[in-house]
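User: My collaborator sent over this chain with a note saying "see what the structure looks like." That's all I know about it. Can you take a look?
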Amino acid sequence: MLEQSLCPLCGSKETLHLYVGAEKGNGREFRRCTDCDLVFVPSRFHLDETAQRKRYLEHNNDPDDQEYRRFLSRLLDPLRPHLRPNTIGLDYGAGPGPALAAMMRENGYDIRLYDPLFHRDESALDRSYDFITCTETVEHMSDPIRDFCVLDRILRPSGWLGVMTGMLDSWDDFPNWYYHRDPTHICFYSKRTMRWIGRRFFWQVLCPRQNVVLFHKLA
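Assistant: Without extra context I'll predict from the sequence alone. Here is the result:
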């Protein structure tokens, strides 16, 4: 049955109940948009900023952790061939330990940080960039269309946006997926969703490896 629960990405009213989570007794509902294919958690289940911050600080974001660096290299390795030396970038959603930014600087790139909880430097959003990285960030967005509009505004023509987030090939596998058990994860994307985003902003979409999407701004 269709209900009027607006998709936070495309604004469609055509959203379907997908699943109710039982983890930790929170009973969060997950809905799927039939237009852009986003799966999202309605806002009544979102954590406040204090609870979000506490949860993020439980993550291992140590820039010196080699295993974490290998994880981040899943985005860095396919993105780097598209970037010219000495280009300027932004780590959007850098988190408490901006390891990817450290790795980018080691590779000769000038990079700034923005995070609404840990690096709330609004001046970072008042300039433009040759590339933007978004690792394990888009799943936390309560208003994803607003964030993607910001990213489009600050990304220069011919620039690159690299996104890394958990994705499934089929929503049939959603109930057994570990990714939705994190209470700060409130938006879930498929390749169909990523193609919708590409059409919305006139970005070319590349999927170089699992859970990694590169957007190329064409104009």
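A starting point for your reply to your collaborator: The CA atoms of residues 65 and 218 lie 36 Å apart.
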